[in-house]
Every structure is written in structure tokens, then in C-alpha cells.
Amino acid sequence: MPERNIEFGKYGARGIKGHEAVARQLDALAGYIATPVTARRGLLARLHYLTRTPHAREAARAAGLTVTDRTLRAWEAGTRMPSRRNLERIEQAYRTVRRENVARYLTARLNRDGRGTRVEIHPLNQSQVSRPRQRPVEFRAMNVRRWDRIVTAWAAGDDQELDDAWVDLVVDLGSQWGQYEYVTNIGFAA
User: Fold this and answer.
1) Residue 58 pLDDT
2) How many of the other CB atoms lie within 10 Å of CB of 81?
3) pLDDT for residue 3 is more than 60
């Protein structure tokens, strides 16, 4: 694409890709458990979320948590602690299942029956770029009405699809859309 940055940060600009900022905001809206998985309380909360129903157990197994029921009971009782690798698997399975569970709700909340959600785009940080190389990039706001593709890609953990979906929406900014490929923050609420 003609507006894609090839050597971002070459002159000192700082920021993250727009789709990564959107994923961060969606993660914040998903409402994950705040206590880390390494703490007993966080571990028990995640295990309860992943094992409270047969459907949740199937989703956890599909997400990569493949341990026996006996091991799960031992973890819940506190007689055994999961290894570091199993803690990572529990966290990854929890985030995957949580994303799948809240995706439909977030899509409905963000679409708001066709009214959409206001999105604020904060441009990249150019404070470390020398004056002659700085370009004027202002704060932008736009109304996004179609969140289905973005939320679906986020729930699936597909970064490339999320990037493509976000770029398709940012093109609505007009001829300057390429200036917002990298940003400091993207804000919206559901």
C-alpha cells in the first residue's frame, strides 16, 4: 500500500501500530482478572472461570489447557502448584476463552444499533524527531459504525486480520490516513 510506513522510527518517532492500540483498548474493555496468575487468588479465579461448566472446560481444552481433572483438582486444593509453563498456559487459555465470551457483547455495544462508537486517535510522538523532519499530525476523532470484523479478529488473536480491518476503517480519514498507521493511543469506550 502506498501509505504504509517501511522504516518507522528511523528519525526518532515513537508509537505503536494502530491495530495494537485497538487490541489494547479491547483488552481493557474485556475486563480480565486483575490479580496475576502467579498469586494464589489469581490462579484460583482463572481456574474457576475455565472449569465452572462443561462448556468452559471444552473451551479451555481447545485453547491449549490440556491437563487431567485430577491435576486441576490438586491445583484448586493447593496440594500442587502448576509449573511456570502451565501458569503461562492457564493465562493464555483464560485470555482466549474470555475474548471469545465477550466478543459478541462488545460487538453489540460498540456498534450501538448502527450508531457506532466515537474513536479518538492520538498521533505518534515526534518529540525526538529533529525540527526539519517533523510533520504536522493532529489529534483526530471519527465515528466507527462497523466493529464486527475488528472484534472478530481480536477475539481470534489474528494480528494480520486486525491490522487489515483497522486500516480499512482508517482510510475513512481521507488522504492523510497513512499518518495514523502508528499512534500513541487510541481511545473509545463501550
Assistant:
1) 93
2) 13
3) no
From residue 71, alpha-carbon distances to 40, 81, 84, 174 in Å are: 16, 9, 15, 55
Torsion of CA 137, 140, 144, 149, to 10 degrees: 30
| CA–CA gap between residue 102 and residue 85 (Å, rounded) | 26
The pLDDT value recorded for residue 38 is 95
The pLDDT score that the predictor gives to residue 8 is: 77
Question: 98 with 106: CB under 8 angstroms?
Answer: no
Q: Report how far residue 95's alpha carbon sits from residue 88's, in angstroms, rounded to the nearest whole number.
A: 11
Q: Give whole-number Cα distances, 94 to 11, 13, 75, 112, 152, in Å.
A: 39, 35, 15, 27, 17
Supply the DSSP symbol for 34. Answer: S
Quote the CA–CA distance of 103 and 186 in Å, as a whole number.
Answer: 19
Cell of 33: 482478572
pLDDT tens-digit map of 98-131: 999 999 999 999 999 999 999 999 988 888 888 8
For residue 1, the model assigns a pLDDT of: 41
Number of helices (H) and strands (E) in the chain: give both, helices first: 7, 4
SS3 13: coil
Q: What is the DSSP letter of 93?
A: H
pLDDT given at position 129: 87
- In angstroms, the CA 164 to CA 145 distance is 16
